Amino acid sequence: MKLNAIHFKKIAVSVPLFTLAFLANPAHAVDWTEIGDAGQLVSTAQMPTGDEGRLRNIYGTISTNNDVDLFRIYISNPTTFSAGVSSTSGNLDSGLILFNEGGYALYGNDDAMLRTGTSGLPAGHLSGPQAPGWYNLAIFALGTPPVSGDGFTSDHYMFPNVSSPYTQILTATGPGGASSLTGWAQLKDTVALNEEYGIRLSGVTVSPVPEPETYAMLLAGLGLMGMMVRRRKGFIAR
Ligand SMILES: [Ca+2]
Ligand SMILES: [Ca+2]
Ligand SMILES: [Ca+2]
After folding, report:
1. Using CA atoms, how far apart are residues 66 and 53, in angstroms rounded to an integer?
2. Which segment of the chain is annotated as a signal peptide (predicted)?
3. Closest ligand by atom to 62 CA
4. pLDDT for position 22
5. 178 contacts 139 by C-beta, under 8 angstroms
6. How far apart are CA 137 and CA 60, in angstroms?
7. Residue ranges of the chain whose pLDDT lies below 50
């Protein structure tokens, strides 16, 4: 097909419009499945990646009673952020904790509802995320509390001991709560669990920073649009 001036104009308009729509309203949602075993420290947390868009679910496996999986996530909307264990393959009594980028604990939960083992971090909690940015979300089987400092005894626990009915939203008011995560108090005997889990997320995106090519495409598109607008203005003025 001959590429004449009309075709060129059509391309010039459609490219920036498409790009803008794509950036403003990322329609696709991404599900992430743990690759291998996610680490349990900020330095070894696994970062879900994918096409730009909403991160809807994280799937993974708690392989033993001492397995902790930490995921580095980008919370784009702190007001709507929530995380809830939506599925488990068996009877995983999960815990969820949100840490900030540096490993300071924000809030955690053992059981989202009475007589369930699954956990949830609600939206709009005072101790929840207050600003968009990188955070670390941990899922683990009960019995492995997070610690700070150089020890694993209860005087390093970041959270207070959880008590019945286990549905409280816990904040980092334990003896080690004012310092950042250095480890998890592990159980003496490691037992295989191999429980699969799904965590449903709100307010989380992947690849929040547009790739350089996207910027280039957007700028090129806007440049072409600007040229066309200028040309048209000139035409009307005459
Ligand atoms: Ca794991
Ligand atoms: Ca792990
Ligand atoms: Ca639980």
Report:
1. 32
2. 1-29
3. 1
4. 47
5. no
6. 13
7. 1-3, 8, 17-22, 24-26, 235-238
Positive or negative: CA dihedral 28, 33, 34, 40 = positive
Q: What is the predicted pLDDT for the residue at 39?
A: 98
C-alpha radius of gyration, the chain, whole number: 23
Q: Which ligand is the nearest neighbour of the Cα of 92?
A: 3
Rounded to the nearest angstrom, the distance between the alpha carbon of 133 and the centre of ligand 1 is 24
For residue 227, report the distance from its CA to the centre of ligand 3, in Å: 59
User: Cα–chain-centroid distance for residue 143?
Assistant: 24
> How confident is the model over 78-127, as pLDDT tens digits?
999 999 999 888 788 999 999 999 999 999 999 998 888 899 999 999 99
85 alpha carbon – ligand 3 mean position (Å): 10
Cα-to-centroid distance, 67 and ligand 2 (Å)? 5
Specify the CATH number of the domain 34-206. 2.60.120.380
The three-class DSSP label of residue 51 is coil
CA of 118 to the centre of ligand 3 (A): 5
Q: pLDDT for 51-63, tens place per residue? A: 889 999 999 999 9
Domain ranges of the chain: 5-23+212-237, 34-206
